[in-house]
Amino acid sequence: MTDDELQQLVASLSEQVQRLEDIEQIKKLQRSYVRFLTDHEWEAALDAFTENAVVDVRDHGPRRGREEVARLFAGMHAHDGPRSGYVLSSPVVEVAGDTASGLWTLHCHWCDVSETDPTVRVYGPWYEGRYRCTYRREAGRWRISRMNLRVVLPDRDLEPDAIEAPAERGEKVISGADRSS
Questions:
Q1: How does pLDDT run across 35-50, given as a tens digit for each residue?
Q2: Rg (CA), the chain
Q3: How far apart are CA 177 and CA 33, in angstroms?
Q4: 0.90 exceeded by pTM
Q5: Could you identify which of 2, 95, 134, 153 might form a hypothetical disulfide with 128, taking C-beta atoms 3.0 to 4.6 angstroms apart as the criterion?
Q6: Residue 178 forms part of a structural domain
Q7: Can you give the residue range of the structural domain that contains 138?
Q8: What is the pLDDT of residues 139-171, one digit of tens each?
Q9: Apex CA 167: angle with CA 159 and CA 172, to 5°?
Q10: Structural contact between residues 48 and 33, judged by C-beta atoms closer than 8 angstroms
């Protein structure tokens, strides 16, 4: 092996190691974010995002910037619904320099289920969702720059614009999130 070949090999291996380290850091970031949500640690969860992040969780509608995301978390905190357990799995993370994308499966397991209205359909004590995220490395640290979460099972979430039409017609829309926050 020539010196040039050896240098190319070392450079290639260095790039591969950096990519794998980046993927592991992103996985840790996403796992930590979900843990902070589970534990209702809203400030720590907020720190996972870039300043100009866009967060679109279920039917809350897109929130732009950390200030709006903080208001979303404040609404979740004020609602203080039943405690839930979460399992985050099946990560598919792709890194391209200082940006990355990730697709995750989320399983939510409610610890207690309450019915406040006899017309509310109760799916059962679980749902499966998909996180679609974009990440950006800032000052050497990975953060979430865009996040989308939709439930896919047992029934799919409607997109926020699809919820408005039935509600305007007076139809009851069953959703898993409070639109007031």
A1: 998 888 999 999 999 9
A2: 20
A3: 19
A4: no
A5: 153
A6: no
A7: 3-168
A8: 999 999 999 999 998 888 877 777 665 556 565
A9: 100
A10: yes
